[in-house]
Each structure stands twice: as C-alpha cells, then as structure tokens.
Amino acid sequence: MATEKPGRPIYRQGAKENSLRRRARRATASGRLLLPGLFATFIVAAGASFLADHYQAPVMLFALLLGMALGFLHEEGRAVPGIDFTATVVLRLGVALLGLRITLDEVTALGAGPVLLVIAAVVLTLLFGILCSTLLGRGRHFGLLSGGSVGICGASAALALAAVLPRNDRSERDTIFAVISVTALSTLAMIAYPLVANRLGLSDSEAGLFLGGTIHDVAQVVGAAYSMSPATGDAATVVKVLRVAMLVPTIFVLSVIYRRGRSSSASSSSAIPLPLFIVAFAVLVAVNSMGVVPSPLRDHLVATSQWCLVAAIAALGMKTSLRELATVGWRPLSIVIAETAFLAVVVLVGIRWLAAGGPEWLLPV
C-alpha cells in the first residue's frame, strides 16, 4: 500500500493527459468532418460575391441560387455536416458581428420624429404580419418571420429570427422562402421607390426616410438612395441602420416569450436560454458606439459578418428542395407582398404627418 500512494498523482496526471489527447483527437475528427461542407459553402459565397460585384445584383440572391443549384451536395454524406454547421453556427456568428455596423450616435442624430416613426413602422409591420399569416392559415411564426424580414433588414433579419423561433417541419423551407421573397421585392423596391419619391415631391431628408424606412436590404437602400442624391443617401443609410438596430430588441423579446412558453409547459431545464449570439450583437453595438474598435479591425469584422451570412444563405440553398419550395403556395407570397405595401403606406403617412406640422419635438432634423 505504501508503494502505491506516491504513484497516484502520476496516475491521475497520466489520465488527464490521455483525456486531453482524446478530446484533441475528437476535435480534429470533427474539424475534418465539417471541412468538406464548409469549403463548399464558402466557395459558393465567393462565387456569389464575384457575380454580385460583376453584375451589380444582390449577393444574397446569387448565393441562394448557386446553393440551390448545388443541392445535391446536401444529399452526399461527406458535405452534410459542414453544410448544417454553416446554416446554424456560422449564421449566428454573422448575425452577432452585425453589431459592429451600428452606433448609438447614428440613431440619436436622426431626431425623435423619424426614430419613433421607424420604431412604430417595424412594430406595426410585425403585428400586421402575424395578423395576415394567421388569417391565411400560416400561423404566427411565419408572420413573425416574414414581418421581421420586411420590417427590419431583409434576409439578415430572416436568418436571425429563424435562429430564435421554434423549429418545425416547415422552418427551413419558410426561412428560404422569406429570404427569396424579400430579396426579390427589395430589388423591385430599389427600382420603383425612387420613382415614387420623385412623384410625391419628397425632399432629400423625406426621401431618405422613405427609402431607408421601407426597402428591405441594406444594399438596395444604398443603391436606391444614392441614385437620387448624396443627401438622400446619407439620410437613408442612417434610417436603415436604425431598422437594423431594431433586430436586438425584437429578438430579445421573442427569446423571452418563447422561453417562458417553453418553461410553462415543460421543466425549467428545458427552457430556451437567451441566444448568445444576440448577447454578442448587443455587446458589439455598445463597443462600437464607444469607438474603441480600430477602423481596420472593424472593417475586417464587418466583412467577415457579410461572408458568414452569404455562406449561411448558400448552405440554406443547398438544403432546400425546389419541389418542396413549390408546395409553399400563394399564401406566403401574398403575405410578404401585403407586408411590403403596408410598411410603405405607414412610412409615407408618418412622413406626411411630420411634414404637416407634428409636435415640434417630433419634427425631423
């Protein structure tokens, strides 16, 4: 017995080393397992980015189409784990890094009127989406997904909301449909809405508020607004940033609601935790507002966010069956179109009310 006691620490140390080696081997094996799918999705993202730059078209749309064309990769065993990883973990990383595109100063510079109008438009669009989706038999989850996509920031919002909403058999199909529909409608709005603004005789600031408050995706907002004037482009960009910022409270509220819903019907151990990527998003907004992130690093991280989101879209495209997508029917499309029209009407009415002499503290800057 005396000869065994001194050997116990050595034995335990050896056991720990063996455990670390096993974990390292498992991590290496997992990395090798994910590599084919990761490689495929990021190659598609690179191709989509090249085509978008070359043809001046939405990168998300190219990523979707290329991913769907390569859907057979998700049917082949080696690429499946990496594709699934990109559609979940890489997606969350991209959403978290979106926080570096926003500062609180950009929001407060708008003035109270435009800020409250944008907030009201987002909330009303979400509620309208739930109402339309419920009336047409699609359920409130699709209404939240589509309403958030239309009201907040297009495809990025669709991906972020899909990561929080409860999953079911239609989740991935609904997400990919929301991405396709809002991307297509955003492109149409980029062409049509500047004509509407000119027809209505909106000023530069009013046109910026209209375009930034209604067009779905950031790229289309920039393209439409700067095609009118630099002043319109600057105003629209800040308004759009405010809409993107609404992603934080929206997802936080949904996370709390569904966590409570789960805990009321199941044990507390099964409650849905607040998603870490949303916490990271909020933290990065605060850090970016302090100005402590060096500009080169911030630019690289924002570019990384874009790459992650494009790759995630490509992965979702690979996981999508065109036959299943065709079974979605006319109801979801009509919901998204109705939400888009509703948002435009709300913003235009708000602009006219402010221009007609709303309370002084609400007037736009």
UniProtKB/TrEMBL annotation:
The chain crosses the membrane at residues 33-51, 57-73, 85-104, 116-136, 143-164, 176-196, 208-229, 241-258, 270-288, 300-318, 330-355. It is found in: Cell membrane. Keywords: Cell membrane, Membrane, Transmembrane, Transmembrane helix. It is a multi-pass membrane protein. It comes from the Bacteria. It holds the Pfam family Cons_hypoth698. GO terms for cellular component: plasma membrane. PANTHER family: INNER MEMBRANE PROTEIN YEIH-RELATED, UPF0324 INNER MEMBRANE PROTEIN YEIH. Belongs to the UPF0324 family. This is Inner membrane protein. It comes from Pseudohaliea rubra DSM 19751.
